[in-house]
Amino acid sequence: MLTADGSKLGLIDTHAHLDSTDYNEDRSMVIARTFSDGIGVITVGVDLESSGAALKLAQRHRFIWAGVGVHPHEAKTFNNEVSAALRKLTTDPKVVAIGEIGLDYYRDLSPRSTQRDVFIKQIELANELDLPVIIHNRESTKDMLAILRKHRPKRGVIHSFLGDIDLAQEFMDLKLYLGIGGPLTFKKNDILRDAVRQIPLDRILLETDSPYLTPVPYRGKRNEPAYVRYVAEEIAHLKELSIDKVAAVTTENARQLFDI
Ligand SMILES: [Zn+2]
What we know:
The structure is a single chain. By secondary structure, this protein is α/β, with parallel strands linked by helices. The chain is 41% helix and 17% strand. It has helices spanning 27-36, 48-60, 80-89, 112-129, 141-150, 165-173, 190-198, 228-239, 243-258; strands spanning 11-16, 39-44, 64-68, 95-104, 133-138, 156-158, 177-180, 204-206. It has an 8-stranded parallel β-sheet with strand order 1-2-3-4-5-6-7-8. Mean pLDDT is 95; it is low at 1-6. Bound molecules: zinc ion (ZN).
């Protein structure tokens, strides 16, 4: 796969929010840096409006694809009309996933029962449309596993995985990929680093969650997809592999999962 300027598409940032207002001043520059570094992006919606915005970005740029869905924070906005509108967005071939969807019991911005209900409905939508799911899970692992075991997504990724190897194995047993991002470079996350040493590379996707979760050495600043390289470098270091190997395998994983 070649980028617009002829360089190789080396890495795929499988989770960014390029429609975020944090990029309103310089979005085209951020995207230009991403492409000149040979990086493709899955940009992910969090509600109906941002899903539409994500798709517009994907339609405008060859190496951007979109996820559409309602985030657990916004679960209270989900209804039959929203579901129908999301379904309509998925008729565009640049929509490659249903996400971001899931559970967040840390911030509890929608009632938990609503979060569970809306998550299940969107898994069912994804399965019906034969699309992968992009899953958010924060302080909700017990209910997350129960829902995933009962309402099996056909394909998907646990975005920003932060657990230990035992939890990683639970998700891998459900045939899910693990999205690894900036927190891998944070000093306190030895348990995650230990897990990543043991997770087979063919189950790992790279991500940034831009504009959030900025990796070292830019921690504290705004994140952007070009920084996915720092995640790839840390994985290469932990697994004692070349960066080229990490890039090749994780990019192939992303291409397989999202059919891009
Ligand atoms: Zn996200």
